[in-house]
Records
---
Amino acid sequence: MGWVSRQFTTRVIVLIPVAIAINIVIGYLTQTVLKLPIYLDSIGTILVGVLAGPLAGAFTGAASNLIWQYAPVIGGGTIGPFAITAAVIGFLAGIWGYLGIYRPRPASGTQLLLAAIIAGAVIVLVVIPIFNNPAYTDPNIGGYPSWVYTAAAVIAVIVAVIVAAFIYIRRDLAGLFVALAGIATGVVAAIVSAPIAAIAFNGVTGSGTDLIVAALRQGGSDVLNASLGQGLFSDPIDKTITSFVVYIVLLGLSRRFLARFPLGNRLFGDHDGAAEAWGSSTPA
Amino acid sequence: MAPPKLGDRALLPDRAPAPQSLPDFVGRPAQGRYRGLNPTTKLVIAFSTALIAFGVRGWTGALVALAVVVASATYGRIGRAMLPYALATIPLVISILLVNTFLYPGASDPIAHVGPLSPSWSGLTAAVQGTLRVVAFAMSVALFALTTTTNDLVSDLERRGLGRRPSFVLSAAIGTVPRMIDRAKEITEAQRARGLDTEGRVWRRIRGLVPLAGPLVIGALTEVEEKTMALEARGFTAPGRRTVLRAMPDSPTQRALRWLLTVGTLLVLAASISGALGWLP
């Protein structure tokens, strides 16, 4: 019981509603107002997971989606059934929190350059298999707006460049760890989401990502595989961006504030460089 | 639609003060047909219709769920208020109809050949079934959201033994969302006053997201400390149960209905997953 109750201190209980509201408001802004082809609806979930632990993260994720779906006025959409995915995302974030993935790791020289290159390369590698799919390469199957894939590729490249630049300019190896954790979370999220999308909504969700589903269906994939193909494209990129947003938010919060959360101590290294990185933020 | 009655606040979410100028929590529970049901009963109805719509494949599940929801809405006289929820499903429905009708791998019964596309009957069947499912789900959500207030639901769940932590999370989260939207508007206006371009092309809007989301998230998080102190100072972690002030109406019939629905839905789902319902259309 200790392991469970330690994740739900009063401070965490106060953080969770704020995190749920962050998920809903930023997700709504991204998907509905700005109509971007990513979700950005798990910033709060990952934040709680990293600060409090797997169960708190899973609870936040599931509660976010159910409240978003069922609450009066703000409700609607197709988000409810994906509560399972959100719970898995929060649980994984809790594990990353335990492992200290989000701890700043100052570095310099070759090590830093290497990390920047690896992070950029990994992100591009995740995207390449999608483009080898006949749905995209075979002109006989094609016939859909090609800007969709160009746009997607551009997003992937931009993310890769930003991540690499982040690592190099901030002189912080944590960028690599955060990117890898984001990609891993995204792949798992895609695998969990695909059957939900296929069973509940015949594979589409009424958003911009449906074009990818349509292309994969045209290429001969069945409902489940088309959903999985779309998810494996959108989710790793989305979760990488989300993880970086969370990391930047954590950098913007004072050490005193963070240390009071159950996993707060795992956000700090023992060496001086880390103290300097966190100390540069505004005092509470 | 019936005119709003005293205590009928589900029609006027958060905008109008309680008619008797009493604090909100003293207000009477919702009254009226369907709306006057116990909030937990309405929650059970919402969850079971959603699970039946998604869990039982083919025509049966979606049609049964839709019939139950439409009948309840008619009984509660909220049919017109549910229209916007139905309209909100249109983009999703269009997507489902187009993708399934025209792109159904393995279909061998084309309706016609239109250039490179060949819509199929089996695709159309899947599309219409998917549409019914989505509409049934959206209507079941609307039925719940339009007839139940958060306060009613949380106090009833707490009376049934939901801990104070989940209760707090539920009501605080729903209360925080509109406040955060207001805050987002304030930040947008403040940034605009400093010369930020929040309209125009996509790339500009994306760049506008950062100076908006940053202060929003950090600002919300800094409030956590104060709220924690406030809760601790008011005995949030004290042992024992809270006394719930608002008693929601309930009846043995509703209790029986809740159990029946819960057990029935689980049995039907189990039968559906094990394939025992294959004979249904």
Note: The CA atoms of residues 53 and 167 of chain A lie 26 Å apart.
---
Amino acid sequence: MKLVEQFQYGLDAPICLTWELTYACNLACTHCLSSSGRRDPRELSTAECQAVIDELERMQVFYVNIGGGEPTVRSDFWDLVDYATAHHVGVKFSTNGVKITPAIAARLAASDYVDVQVSLDGATADVNDAVRGAGSYATARRAMDNLAAAGFGQFKISVVVTRHNAGQLDEFKAIADGYGAQLRLTRLRPSGRGADVWDDLHPTAAQQRALYDWLLDHGEGVLTGDSFFHLAGYGESLPGLNLCGAGRVVCLIDPVGDVYACPFAIHDNFLAGNVRDAGFDKVWRESELFADLRRPQSGGACASCSAFDSCRGGCMAAKFFTGLPLDGPDPECVRGHGETALSTVDGARAPRPSGDHSRVPVTIGRRPPERACDESPLAGITH
Amino acid sequence: MACAASTEFDLDAAWRLHPGVSVRPERFGALLYHFGTRRLSFLKSTALLDVVQGLDAAPSARVACATAGVPAGELPTYQQALATLAASQMVVERS
């Protein structure tokens, strides 16, 4: 049996998993996959997080991708990172850079088991800040400066490819090279607040093709988190597993302990259980939803397409939140079948992401207030 | 990812798993994760896992293969797989 088939039928433990530690965030990015902003009062406690880490160690999960929200605003964040690495669970965390001071950068540089991913959605401040908020470009660049000065080595610069930054790939690469960092490009999904901006921000067909060619040119030197496997329909596969790992080799633990099939699928339909009930291991092994995802999938409307073996129908979350059937084409299908399918569905009736933690309604181009407002859960702690 | 590599692998040298590599046995073989390079690799058979886990105690990779019961005819396949692992620093020569 080919390896990719083994993975489709699931593993006894995830290869890696995403763990959003908090929904609290100092930013209000228009495309936030988890609609973050306010802290959820039911957030897992320090002790509960440690218990999850103990389980991950027993399950031999090599590392977790920690995100949020902005995970570093949790007051126990650095302690949890230390706890995880002491228990042989490596940590890769995503941050907007707000807490990456020179002292923290030095502390991070001293560990072999911590990797840092700084988010940047524009190679220039105007493009970045239109999506991530005023001042966020400067914050991210300052964090990168601090990491480089501390000798962290190859941190990651993580970019969600949008219609507005798709033409800046060379500039992003130059920024990464300048720091000795590694560029990571991932796909925009219509998840969380991303559903609201999807039509305006997802790359055009021409941009998608140019992105594919650019990724092929750069090979394994640029990371993609395996997120562009739908582009394999153009011909050659990009480096990576090239499959949807949801519930099979990856999953998401959210801040309140809910386990979802993937970080981009925060919706009741993809909720497998909660770690508070009987632990993460039990959810991973026994959830009916995950068992279902691990069964052989029919290609549905895509089965007769010659590209199906390479693209495998694309991203489950992208289909779901644009109102397309899960066994049909991806909305960004490179053969154009997605556009045809979208023309037959009523986008207004597409499922809405569960759980909105936004502080205020967020729209493109909105400039956040200069100072954190008094109601902000982060007032006074973000500087 | 473990895929074709053309590097020659010295079967008569002494090898070991890199100390920064974790091994997780799986039905199909094993997953390897290198904390230094942050790369994931796959061992596509349990026999290859036996070979890799036996490297440290064996005077040479050839002996590790024999101990794991690799038939002489299949040695080139294993040499190729080990070359791939050496190219990504999953296994390193013992000095």
Note: The two ends of chain A are 53 Å apart (CA to CA).
